[in-house]
Amino acid sequence: MDIDDILAEVSGDGLPSETRDLQELTRAWVTERSAPELLPWPSSLMERVLGRIHRQIEVVEEQVGNVDPKTNFRLIIIQTELERFKFLVRSFVRTRIAKINKHALYMLSNPTQTARLSPSEIQYANSHQTLLEAHYRSSFLSQFPSSLQRLDDTAGGISMIEQPDVDTAVFVRVLRDVEEPIIVEGTDIDFEMRRGDVYVVRWSAVREHVLSGDAELI
Question: What's CA 6's distance to the chain center, in Å?
């Protein structure tokens, strides 16, 4: 079996919806953990996954205490699948929260970044930033002149807002041929992306192709 066969297998064609969602969730989890910046919240996927988790929990609760061996075996399978989904969701959300904690002010001050957050994440980011600013002011900022108390100061052309390093190197696998050559900004490097190829390259050079589904992080 070559790489084309493997990629065809994970394309999702002809697979049950649950299996497709699991593959999509796993891919989103890996990509989120590998990307240096927060990626768009997959609202449709998470609605389906969270709905499935809720339904499976209801099934387990209804069947608890049933002495039928066949039912017990079915519950074991359901619970195993349930734990797998719950692990991926928890890890996915924790990864996103870690990025929000690190770059909350940047995300809230940049409309493009704010649009990538779910409603709950926006609420969390606002609360986190409010508490952080209150802590800084009570600890030391109140002792500074008012002109030096801003956390989003850009005086002198230097921004105090910490941003993700989009030039971080990532491992990327190509899922679909890309017609245009990839140019790594600031270098004389350019290359073509063909299905099955694997590269180590700056995130900024392949970000749009990962977000469009032409490639995935590994």
Answer: 23
Pick the closest to residue 50 from 37, 41, 39, 38 (CA basis).
41
pTM for the full predicted model: 0.83
Give the helix ranges, DSSP H, for 110-155.
Answer: 111-114, 119-139
Per-residue pLDDT of the chain (218 residues; tens, 9 = 90+): 444 454 455 555 566 788 899 999 999 999 999 999 999 999 999 999 999 999 988 888 887 766 666 767 778 888 888 999 999 999 999 999 999 999 999 999 999 999 999 999 999 999 999 998 888 888 887 788 777 777 777 766 677 788 999 999 999 999 999 988 898 888 888 899 999 999 999 999 999 999 999 999 99
Is the distance from CB of 107 to CB of 38 less than 8 angstroms? yes
Positive or negative torsion for Cα 204, 209, 211, 217:
negative
Distance CA 208, CA 215 (A): 9
Asked whether 206 and 215 are in contact (CB, 8 A), the reply is yes
Cβ neighbours around 212 below 10 Å, total: 11
With both helix axes pointing from N to C terminus, report the angle between 69-109 and 43-63 in degrees, rounded to the nearest 10.
150
